[in-house]
What does this fold into?
Amino acid sequence: MNSLPLLPESGVDSIVAYRDTGPVTRSEFLRDLFAITARIPDTGHVLNLCKDRYWFATTLFASIARGTLTVLPNSLAPDIIANLRHDLPDLVCLGDQPSAPIELPYLQISGCQGGLSADVPAVPRIPAEQLIMHVYTSGSTGKPNRHAKTFGRIWQCITTGAGRMWAAASGPCTVIGTVPFQHMYGLESTIFLPLLGGGRLASRLPFFPADVSAALAQLPAPRLLVTTPFHLRMLLDTDIEFPSVAAIVSATAPLSGELAAEAEARLSAPIIEIYGSTETGQIATRQPTQCAEWEVYDGIALKQEQGATIVSDGHLECSQTLNDTIELCGPSRFRLLGRNSDMVNVVGKRSSLSYLNQVITSLPGVHDGVFCIPETHPERNVSRLAAFVVAPGLHPDDIQSSLLQQLDPVFLPRPIIFVESLPRDGNGKIPASAMAELIAKHIP
It folds into this structure.
């Protein structure tokens, strides 16, 4: 595998994307791509800050075609950008806004349309080992870390995953997502899956249930909805009627069986969950209403050493130690028990924060909630748990009584702090730094 086409084979007039202005053909996409490629400055690194999914994707693929590495930090916080500028002095910002959102050399790319030339540009071939991206972990478990991605490995991952997605959906779909496309899950599932996997990209990024319904209604069937457990719960908590979807893809946290079954019944579509990380990309899937076990992608190998699970081969750049506690059920199947950082031991009894969070967010009247560890003692592990909840109209006793029906008393949170909202990012996660701020502010 020395080189690969930037796009898979299809007709020049085939639809590859949908924008608010209408469908985009393969030839139109290529013209836009080459118009951007011609204007990218002579630099080794670009920061893609396009807010429109179509322009983000076109700019990303233009950068790949030019051989320019795209940097995708987890945040645009001033300290993070300052560190990038220090490490990458040639960094240039590309975006679809009229002016630069941060202090970097800036090129507005949304004025780079390729026009209506009758000539159809040839699809570039990309060296499989070409480095195309630096992506950063979310910071939900600590300091964000950088990981390099090559085109060949991304191509292998996506084409393998596409087989499973399209099987669940009964064929290739137009892909619409509620998740940010600058981070690994949204990047793989709403950018690379439609463009490298033979689907169709949708430019809009809906968040609220009414926006999701409107975005789906604008797209032709079949449609694939990419979302998270947090967003899915928001959809189910409304009485809005949603246009039909062929399948639902979920990631960032395991779905509870109850939420998965409710979503499938409400939306009349199968749910497929993706397991992966920024370090590994997607490496396994499951359909939670059919089987609790995850099945890894072809070529992926799992082994356990000294209590840790190591994943290797397949599309991985190198072996990675997973941050999760896993029970192997064979060479290609496993059960997910929880994140290593999530496992808590309270007076000798073990559970995971992920499971506890599933329980508290399932309670009647609780719109959102999260358990936390306010303090630890080496000799006693975790001395107590606490919880933050968004639950207007409820009293702490109401929540404690409901939790007591499902949890051992040692896991009941003390205290329970009511807040108006939780500081979740676009993937529905709460960064470790934001959780630390909540604890410092509300728990003595």
